[in-house]
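Dear colleague,

Thank you for sharing your sequence with our group. We've completed the structure prediction you requested, and as agreed, I am returning the results in plain text so they can be pasted directly into your records. Please verify that the sequence below matches your submission; if there's any discrepancy, let me know and we will rerun it promptly.
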Amino acid sequence: MLSSFKIRNQLLILFLSGVLAGFSIYSIYLTPLLIFGYCYFLKKLETNRTKKNALYDGVIFGTGYFFGCLHWIVFPFLIYEKHFILAPFILIIFPILMSIFFAVSTMLIYLTRRINPDLRFLKISLVSVILFSSEWVRSCLFGGLPLSLTAHIWSFQYQLISIASYIGVFGLSYLTIYWLVLVSSFYTKKVVCFFIIIFFPLFLYFIPTSNYDYQSAQEKYPVRIIQPNIPQEEKWNRALYQKNFEKLIHLTKKQISNEKIIVVWPEVALTLFLNEEKELLKYLRTVLPQNIILITGSLRREFHDSGYKVYNSFFILSDDKVQYYDKIKLVPFGEFIPFKNILDFLKVTPGSTNFTSGLKENSIKLSFNNESIFIEPSICFESIFQTFSFNKINFFINITNDAWFGQTTGPSQHLAATIFRSVEKGVPLVRSANSGISVIINKNGKILKSKKLNSTGYLQSNISLGNNKTFFMEVGNTSVILLIFIIIFFSIIMDLIFKYRKKD
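Please find the predicted structure tokens below.
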């Protein structure tokens, strides 16, 4: 009876340690929770007698972890009444399904117990690789979900993420996981453990950025970001379309100067098929000052013999020219329904039509005062995915609508993932989010200006262009694989050194 009670307590603590570790991901100030969560988890794995126990521990910790970091995934199901009944199931089932990634990891970690105890550093490096591989696989499998990566805990301290210009977000995730496993292995040795905890952030702080061309910093380009803060339940209400449109126009023209300027509206700011609205395009050219280059999200429709296709699009309106980019990475259950005939009831967005994935290159050439600027467009959660383009890129623009996630940590985690695109590419990032968080970020990942969640207004700044020529963009994630091999090699060297010292 007592044994059973003790086991239940241990499992509850394991679940809560997962919740704390997951919840901490979006803020550096919660790093102690991340350390505690991983330390308890890894120490618990050492007590497992069977592979089955390891599997259970992985499921329990993983369920807690994904509940802690991705609990906000349920919020879209609370917007419209017809989805209310699904919310409890999503809140429970989603973390359990995601916990499979931890479950596989814990079974593999169980096998590392066969390694000679003298090879301590080798074991640490292998456990780190297993945990990191789990994170990498879930970021790629079935379209991938690279949210709440371990590296994201450093996102809002630009001094600590400059290493991503060499090894990308996944490289930093691996190093952070290695650090957590190292702390767990030496937690009983207080002095050593304290040194390890302090050393890693200091190491990150002193890494310079990798950027091959600094000439672009000499010229500034004015940009204005609009955050209209239109509630999700009002956004698609046709009776409120004119009111929402006038709000966008007012924020765009408010105290605008006469200099050439790029103005960015959020995802589907215009809730219609913009490519079919010739009169609206003509009106926009009339109502907006001539010095404005307008970037806005809207819908686009193409008719074919078999019907029509709908796209979530990124439009650039400059002079009499209209350019567009169609979203490539679509949101499951939001913009398309897998196995639509069976799971159609899970669609959270209005309408019954699936969006179509775009095919165009994610690079747009823009003329600005007779100069050519190259933009990489990104819509909504596309910004959490790494992109590798051989085209010239000067800055990265993300338009999104995070009103779906209310006051949760979802918008912060979305932004945390997006910031890494700026550092990896060595280009500035501008982000227009309907309800926030809108930002202007320089090419080093530093937030220059931001608009708080659920606030209305605009941001304006003069930005320096980048060049998409960091070390990471040259070699890609090959740098991560190389990093892993280097650490394993040095782990073996360290074990050999300690082994010979013991003999002496």
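Summary note from our side: Residues 339-347 have pLDDT under 50 and may be disordered.

Kind regards,
the structure core
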